[in-house]
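Feature request, filed as a ticket because there's no other form

It would be nice if the structure record came with a short human-readable summary line next to the tokens. Right now we just get the raw output. Example of a typical job, pasted below so the devs can see what we mean:
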Amino acid sequence: MPYKIAVLGGDGIGPEVTAEAVKVLGRTGTDFIFEKALIGGAAFDATGHPLPQETLNLCKSADAVLLGAVGGPNWDHLDPKLRPEVGALLPLRAELKLFANVRPAKTLPALMMASPLKGERALVDLIVVRELTGGIYFGKPRERRENGTVAVDTCIYSRFEIERITHRAFDIARQRKRNLVSVDKANVLETSRLWRETVAEIAQKNPDVSMSNMLVDNCAMQLIRDPQQFDVILTENMFGDILSDEASMITGSLGLLPSASLSDPKNGRTFGLYEPVHGSAPDIAGQGRANPIAAILSAGMMLKYTFGENDAAFRIEHAVNSALDQGLRTADIFEKGCKLVSTTEMGDAVASYLE
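Raw output as currently delivered:
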């Protein structure tokens, strides 16, 4: 049976980069059926809602979801509940029960010079495991008080939410260097104190993995000072959002980094939504300047985490490195002496190296 993939191009450069990821998946030798649907601003313009029921139904019937990007200034005037980031991404994650966001940050050898860090410090290989459906992004009530002059957002975490993301982080760490850092703000926040207590209890039952705690402000500093000390970083929703973007820039460009949003395993398979960490970049949409590597590597993560096609996932990573080793560069990572290529040309090159 072929795997059914829901392809949600979204807004801006989203459709451009997902098209290249689909192209590469089609060259892996794995059997797929790709079905497209609208999401984000494009969906709002067409249907009046950023997450149409038809799109949600497709995602629920699919084996995995490949997402491009959503949002842009064209929809900033909308009610906050209808803006693509809030009206599409947050309910999609909740409806699909995608509680674990896995964001690797790995320096590609050919792009050492693109990192803002110099020398060996730029060589990083870490994963941020971010809790995705709790915390301040989902806490209620969200409201304005005192004639709109006071705003309230509530951060809420349950022990269950912390336990399940912690178990996932330990599983990932066990497949790597067995080194996990749990990040919180336990010196100030009650949710972080519950977080630290819960992680400590689970760590006692997983003695084969080394676990330590770090305050979020210190972690932000340490990622710049000594990023090589990190293997797996476990943290809550908002901290993970910020720290994973910081870690991604160490590698040189947001256009390089993939992500996976995963559910609990069911019938031996983990459902996931896979997307690049970058945004919709409307300023370069339609110009062929977008870097498709993050979307392509997200497709590779899909092969690994949802379908267990580890060999095909490795081949995609190798093909990306091969294209970069040949000096091919999109505009965001271009450097002197390299060949500037378009979005489609980079996707063609990666696909050709797969063969």
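Something like this underneath would help us a lot:
The first strand starts at residue 3 and ends at 10.
The chain has two domains: 1-103+253-355, 116-250.
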